[in-house]
Design brief:
It is built from seven helices and seven strands. With 213 residues, the protein is of the alpha+beta class.
């Protein structure tokens, strides 16, 4: 999924070459906690609910939306049947992210399961997405994750669409409205300009640095 971040980062670095830009690969909740403490200027994560307490006091810019997708072991690694509908996952060993660390994800998934009148058979919980992917690849079970996570392992695992699952997740950039960062407004201007270009022209875009000074 293209979020416009790559174009925004490249354009920002071209326009302000002396500005320091540090990227951190952290779970969404960790990003938001550090954002509230003033340790980060911007968090890029999934916002599953508009009333999520993790986003209280923050402003957001929506980067895009994506669906949940099923991931199953590669052919030959397991004899588990290929699930096609959400109901099929209730009959298979399910590997999930830790319910304490990823509480909002489970709140969202549980709401979907309740609407479909089913209960997942949770057999393993992990604290890191990488561990979840490794366990599925090893044939230990199946899982349901946002599409961007599944796409990182499409050469290792099998990705299967869930036919009766239409809900979409919002991916946002969150920030403090009164941030003390002198460069955050400049980056947000670049980011919003990239998103406007993407909306007007869905194909690949090359942004000229001079257009966002």
């Amino acid at each position: 999924m293209k979020l416009g971040l790559g174009n925004a980062i490249n354009a920002f670095r071209s326009a302000w070459p002396d500005a320091e830009l540090a990227l951190h690969d952290l779970p969404g909740t960790d990003q938001l906690e550090r954002l509230h403490r003033g340790e980060l200027d911007l968090a890029v994560c999934t916002q599953l609910f508009p009333d999520s307490p993790f986003f209280f006091g923050l402003d957001t810019v929506t980067l895009g939306t994506e669906k949940l997708i099923g991931i199953i072991p590669p052919a030959g690694a397991s004899e588990l049947p290929v699930p096609k509908r959400l109901q099929d996952y209730a009959d298979l060993p399910f590997i999930g992210l830790d319910k304490n660390t990823f509480s909002e994800y489970w709140r969202f998934l549980d709401r979907i399961c309740e609407a479909h009148h089913l209960r997942l058979r949770l057999t393993l919980q992990v604290k890191e997405k990488h561990s979840l992917l490794m366990l599925v690849a090893g044939g230990m079970g199946v899982s349901i994750v946002p599409r961007h996570i599944a796409e990182t392992v499409q050469d290792t695992l099998r990705i299967v669409p869930i036919r009766d699952l239409a809900e979409e997740l919002s991916i946002v950039a969150a920030f403090q409205p009164h941030s003390q960062s002198s460069m955050l407004p400049a980056f947000l201007e670049v980011l919003k300009h990239c998103l406007e270009l993407r909306a007007a022209n869905p194909g690949p875009q090359k942004l000229a640095a001079g257009s966002i000074r």
